[in-house]
From TrEMBL:
GO terms for molecular function: hydrolase activity. The keyword Iron does not apply. This is Metallophosphoesterase. Keywords: Hydrolase.
Amino acid sequence: MRILHTADLHLGRTGKEGDIWHQWEKIIEIALKENIHILLIAGDVFDNGQAEAVLKKKFVISLNKLANQGIQIFIIPGNHDLRQGNALTDLELPGVNVFYKYTVVNLDKIALHFFPFKPELSGQDLVGLKQDSGAECQIGVCHASYITLPEVFSDLGDSQAIHCPLSPEDIRDLNLDYLALGHYHNPKQWQVGKTQCVYPGSIEPLSFKEIGPRQVFIIQYDHGLRVYPIEIGYQRPYLCQDIQIPKEDIHALWPKIEELAQDLGPCFLRLTIKGVADKLLFQAFQLKAGAFLKERAIEVSWQDETVDLGWIEENRLAKQFKEAVQHRVRQSPEKEFWWQVLYRGISLLKHCENVDKKNKV
Ligand SMILES: [Mn+2]
């Protein structure tokens, strides 16, 4: 018996419709090529409860390709499917099952326990719902928050989405061989007692927190359980880069921008710029570089960590410091070192001024 576990498709997410659909098509191909018997989707098929009819239709057609090959499809709703409506209606198709209440499905030597998402549930509620089954291999499916992992806790906490918190004790009490999770958006595989736990992650990165190639998981049960990921890459990753302005000369950054354009494919890029620059020149540079990169399908968001030259001129301490260190820059063979002293010293002075201001308020 071979099962493919995925989750967090977020079909229809604004601005990402095409990218997500390409990733979903990859999963359909993998499902057919890997000879799976069952497809599990652990919630968040659609980005919100009011998915467009055209999109739903397209999704049904894609599921049909699998159902025609005898693949059974099991879906539980996630919090996004049920946001302002229910996106999972009208998916009726032979071989497609959507669960709205706890259900056990026994197939061959495997029991599948489906725990559909409800905002008020906790891990202990799932334990209370679970019925015993005599099958050799017990698999649970839920859309929940395993907050013992710090990255899960902080990501979901930031977006106020710690729904259905699940602890290691809850997982032990559920007494499963495999726990097919959805909700956290990066692939994660770990073990609690005998239970293999997996978040496959979103199928296409949706924010700067969703890093690296995307994965789906194959669960194979013959005499024992074997679990392994298959990488599905991404369409447009989210990347972060720090660059420092060389020697107060914003224009000297341009070769770096050209280099990025050459090295990176289509992506979302967070560029953190450090160094000393004239504010107006820097703003003009951002416009020019942003347009240049956009033409190459690189969407930039700027993080400005520069210190404004204008501020230095007006601040007596900073100005004196700059003049003193610039003298060293000119005279010393360790120029790079003294540029660092200059930049860091001035950043520190600027920081102190900001702190002083805050304290006065
Ligand atoms: Mn999600």
